[in-house]
Amino acid sequence: MANNKSAIKRIQIAERNRLRNKAYKSAVRTLIKKYNNAVKSYAVEPSPEKMVEVRQMMSAAYSQIDKAVKRKVLHRNNGARKKARLAKALKQVTATAS
User: pLDDT for 19-67, tens place per residue?
Assistant: First the structure.
């Protein structure tokens, strides 16, 4: 256990940051799952309404990923990779639907 004030404070700050990072990562994972479900739904039955939903989910996921990168929860390359994979999933579905 910590023996001085500064070490105690660092432990408290580390825990606060850990919880904040966990919240960002969880939000990113949740939005990616929702996006993937929307893409699968669109792949099964393509329609303009479902494409609008997919685009909204994509926008929300991109936004959350960018926020996590901005706050250094995710590395910028990790964020770029996640966004590229989201775009690739949609591109594959739209190519087969056309």
Answer: 999 999 999 999 999 999 999 999 999 999 999 999 999 999 999 999 9
CATH number of the structural domain spanning residue 37: 1.20.58.110
Q: How confident is the model at residue 98 (pLDDT cuts 50, 70, 90)?
A: low
**Domain around 47:** 5-97
What amino acid is encoded at 6 in this protein?
S
Q: How many residues does the chain have?
A: 98
94/34 Cα distance (integer angstroms): 18
pTM of the full structure: 0.89
Q: b vs e for 43-74, b when ≥16 Cβ sit within 10 Å of the residue's Cβ?
A: beeeeeebbebbeebbebbbebbeebbeeebb
How many structural domains are present in the chain?
1
- Token pair for residue 96? 């087969």
* C-alpha dihedral, 71 to 74 to 78 to 80, nearest 10°: -20
